[in-house]
Each structure stands twice: as C-alpha cells, then as structure tokens.
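Example record

The entry below shows one chain as it appears in the dataset: sequence first, then structure tokens.
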Amino acid sequence: MHISKKRVLVTGGAGFIGSHLVRKLVENENEVYILDNISSGYESNILVSKSVKFYKGDVRDQELVSKLVKDIDIVFHLAEFIPNTANYGAGHVVKFSMDNPLVEFDVSCKGTLVVLESIKKYSKKLVFASTAAVYGETNEPNLKETYVTLPISPYGASKLCAEVYAQLYTRIHNLPIVIVRFFNVYGPMQRKYVMYDTLRKLAINPTELKVLGTGSEERDFIYVDDVVDALNLVAESENAIGQVLNIGCGKAISIRNLINEMVRLLPVKPIIEFTNSNWKGNVNRLCADITKIQKLGFTPKVTLHSGLNSLITWFNEFEKDLIKLNKSPKP
C-alpha cells in the first residue's frame, strides 16, 4: 500500500530516511515538496525530478511551513537536528542532545508544534516520526507502544514532548495524525552511527577497530526500504489515525554480533576492541514489539544480511575513497 498521485510535504527530505521516502513517493507518481535546512541532510541526497520541489528553510519558520502545508495533502514530519560531522560520536543524536539540550528541544518540540499549527489551520494529515528513545532504559524484552515512557536523554524527552502535542492536537482538533517510533534504521546514504562509523574506521585502518561500549548492547535494526514501506502504509491506512506505532523488525542483535557480521562481509580481519564505556543517555537494549503495525499489514522484508550487503556496496562505491582522502561528503 503506497500513496499515489498526491501532493506530499516531507520535512527533513534531504536527510537519510527522508531522501529514501522522497524517491519512493516520486516512483508512485506523487508531487513532493521537501523542506530542509541542510543541517542534517545533504543537497546531493535530493532527487532531481520535475516532481520534486526543494525549499531550503527551517521547520521552525512558521510562515514558510504554513505556506507549504496549504498546498499539500499530507505531511511526513521527519525533520530534526543532527549535525553533519566526521568526528566520531559528535553526530550521534543522543550525544548531541546531551551536549545541546536547548537546540534539541527547539527543533524537535517547537518545530513539531509549528507543523501542528499549520496542519490545524488547513486540516491536513500528518505522519510524525518519533523515536524508540522515548522508552528509555527498560528490562522489557520487546517494547509495546503502551509501555511507560521514561526517556534518559534530551533527545528522547523532546520527541516525547512532541508526541504529547501531536496527541493533544488529535484530540482537541480532531486531526488525522499518526505517530511512528523508529527503532534503529540503517541503509545507504546514512553517514553516521555504528554501521557507518565501523565502515569508516576500517577504510582508514583495516587492521584495528575500536568500538564504543561493551558490545553487549542490543538494537533492533530495520532497513530503510522497510521503513519507507511502513510510512506509506500508515499514511494510507484509516486504522492508523490516532495511533502510536513502533517501526522495527521485532528482533534484536548485540553490537558485538553486528560488528562480527559486518567484518565477515568485508575483506578484512581487524583486531576488535570495545571501549567498555559509553556516553550518557545510551540505553542497553532497544527492541520493538511490532504487533500493532503488523495488524495493519506491515512485515519487514529485508534481512540484516541482505541490508548490510547493500550498505557495504553503497559505501564502497560512494564513500570509501572520500574517507581515505580524509574528506567528508559535501552538502
């Protein structure tokens, strides 16, 4: 189930997930508006197409957001601030939020409120991208959407605040809003986080690999194409309106096993060392219960092995030589 022949606004459309979503929307004959200030995305990610209009601007710009929302049918609100940087860890959304909580709040919460005001004004549909970070640290093996949310990072807290506002606007203004909580999304064009950092480090030094943490941390990794399918599904489903839905695979893998799997797919045999320390706000385990979205018809299709192969192919083709030259991808 995919959106077709509609006008769609994607905030953060030059980012990792947003750019993949835009491509699928265009493939299905939609007209797409992108709003992005290129703080976290890249202009090179933007699809060159007569069906795509790019507006370089900030989601906190109420006049601009209102102008764009007026002319569309549905908004996918993916915009958030995660700086583009080659410094390991500095571009991680949790670490950035710990160091810059006011900026994180302003973009995630105020930016979402600006979008909500605009969809209220013009009675539009909204799919809001939240995060599994709202759950915080928990002993639950698989996280249900009904579980208590107790974030341990400003990133999780600001996204939860935005969720509360979205649910408020659903109730008091009867707006068609869907909230999705992404778990660990990965794939081509993602230039940060553990998989990219691992490939980047091994491109520089294939004999040694230092990894943050203990290796026992567990994550639910979902390939970006599956996420795009889930976004299209919830945007089309009437039964999704007013719901909070996890988007993940429902399976967790330890970071140690992930790294081992990646190394097996590469022509390298590095000595792997874990730092046994992590930054504040990092949780030990995140794994989704995806029962709710499965009932709407969603099933993840891409295996971790297949997804990693696609990521590595992209990295070797577009990123490896840049990294060896100590250059970051240009916006």
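Notes for this example: The chain has eleven helices and 14 strands. The first strand starts at residue 7 and ends at 11.
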